[in-house]
Amino acid sequence: MPPQVSKLTKLVTLTDFFIGEQTNSSIAELGPLENLGGKLCIWNLENVGDVSHAKKANLRSKKYIVKLELRWGYFGDDSTCELEREILELLHPNTKLQDLGIYEYNGKTFPEWVGNPCFSNLASLTLSNSRHCSHLPALGQLEFLKNLEIDGFSSVEKVGSEFYGNCNLNKKPFASLEKLTFSRMPRLQELVSPVHNDECGAFPLLQELRVKYCPEVRKILPNYHLPCLVIFESVELQKLVAPMPRSPVMNVISFGSNVHLTKLPSGRYSLSVRQLIDSTFESLLKGMEQVVHPDSVSTLEEIQLDRCHELRCFPLELFQSLRSLHIVSCQHLESFCEHAGPLHALTSLLSLSIRHCPDIASFPEGGLPAPNLRELIIDDCLRLEELPESMHSLLPSLLVLKVRKCPEVASFPGGGLPSNLQKLKIDQCSKLIAARMQWDLQMLSSLSSFSIRSLHGDDVESFPEETLFPPSLTSLRIHGLRKLKSLDYKGFQHLTNLRKLKIIGCDELQSLPQEGLPSSLKSLDIWVCPSVEKRCQRQKGEDWPKIAHIPDIRIRSIEEFDYDDIISGII
């Protein structure tokens, strides 16, 4: 600090004050600065050698300061405990304070002013790294406190009645508190309510409760009624045995920054797991049963797993109420069933997507008995050899099927595809495309949309074959058939309902069919097909008469696309 700061008696803003090891910047210099306002952080309080200097700082007179931080610079030993308590006692701030933080305080107890109800404007309080303190101050008496964070109290084993202060029916503890966090308290075992019932009514407005890195915790306000609690977060609470607090409106339970349990309007839950590294999926489910409810697994309605590389088997049989399952980039996932033999019917399952899981080799034995499944997406499963068995009978309600980057899948399952299928997409599946004449799509009277894509051509020189598609088709997308030379009119002539046709990146395609395209077409896109682009130029192109009847025509060359289009796979 510059010398003789105390002479700047008109000073209004001083955000940080550093106490020197000698006397060149004594905390006493703050005394004459009566007009300080806003934020003030006092650093290196361990350098206060004379207790009287703390008194001369006269923080009570600094009535314009709304945010105060008191920081010690190191963790002292037992010999400094009493000295630091005396210093903190004398640093009693003005009661108009709104935000208070005390860091690295080495005392064994806090002075009475910390938690005194006279601080009627205090809205935010942080107490951090008071490692010798074994009991928390009576903070429940801070009637207007909204945000409280307790961090690094390594000697505290139980948060009990002393934390709440005087309890009576007229004045509820923590009457205004909205956010409460306990973190890095390695000995903490219990966080309990002031009484064994709801008479005291503590935390009537609490919305967010977080308990993080407290490995010995067994109880967190067990079965206590928190009427406004919306978010409950627990991180590394391996020994938690008591049910979590009760709340009629809670909709998010977090097990760390990567695991979230969200309550749905149905009253059931959605589980989202991203990068599960420190524990297994099985231990996560066990933790849910301990924290939420013994039957919490059965209440899951949606599950999203992303980059859970340790997951090898997903126990699909446990989730009879599951409506939606999305698994992405789980590199070592191999199977969907822990036991041998067929699954029980998954009557609630509506949507299933498996993406970027290269070790998946097969679906459960006997197929997926999901009679109400509407959508199935299988993407980038390099070892997968077969689609689920008996899809026509086990997935009768399937409307959408997308199969992408599954190079070992050579055919659709026996019995063909479900008769109600409406949308089918085949993308970069060389063996499956080669066997397209065995697809039996003619039997699918509801099929309205079909998309085929290949980045390597797959030796398709003429497309579509005469009997490939049913007359119900309304939308057809042909993408990346690099060796495609001609469009077969016989494959189009019976598509009397076709409304949309999109042809993209077919470099060798020479022209449109001599007989033209279906008269039912309303939309035509031809992108990055050089020869056809020229032939379809408006009015003067050789193929223009074949398409002039189509209301919406878009023809684009490679120069009209930007780099983002190419990267995103549009072309």
UniProtKB/TrEMBL annotation:
SUPFAM superfamilies listed in its UniProt record: L domain-like
Protein name: R13L1/DRL21-like LRR repeat region domain-containing protein
InterPro entries: LRR_dom_sf, LRR_R13L1-DRL21
Species the sequence originates in: Turnera subulata
Protein origin, superkingdom: Eukaryota
Alphabetized Pfam families for the sequence: LRR_R13L1-DRL21
Domain R13L1/DRL21-like LRR repeat region: 27-152
